[in-house]
Amino acid sequence: MKKIVLAGGCFWGVQSYFDSMKGVSKTVVGYANGKTKNPTYEEVCNYNTGFAEACFIEYDENLTTLTELLESYWKIVNPTLKDRQGNDVGNQYRTGIYYLNEEDIEEIDKSKKDEQKKYKDPIVTEVEHLENFHEAEEYHQNYLHKNPNGYCHIPRDLFE
Predict the structure, then answer these.
(1) What is the domain count for the chain?
(2) In the UniProt record, does the keyword Cell membrane occur (predicted)?
(3) Which of 10, 45, 55, 152 is catalytic?
(4) pLDDT tens for residues 95-124?
């Protein structure tokens, strides 16, 4: 199994979206690449912790590829917006691709360059090595499955 962490605004929709994809075996929402220990949702939203709301994704490379996951990722974000997606505004809602394996950098960079061709404004999605990831509180896990009418900036028709 391969792993990647993707930040694309509120993590509820990102998780639901990738849960519906072929080859994805596990998703967990949490906080990526921040500077405090054991952050809480309240801290991430209200203080300068440096964390991004993100989704840890484990996938079977025999069923889907990193390229396919990234192509899907670009469909649910506006990568030219800094620190926001949809109605969510703040540094924790930035877009980011956090890799665990150095071997993925080339593929990620190519995907980002290909995506840039679609935009006049520069893509601000950060690409960084995953330094840390803290699982979010249980009530955030599979939130949209538990709360089908919950808020999400991603159009629901993309979940199918």
Answers:
(1) 1
(2) no
(3) 10
(4) 999 999 999 999 999 999 999 999 999 999
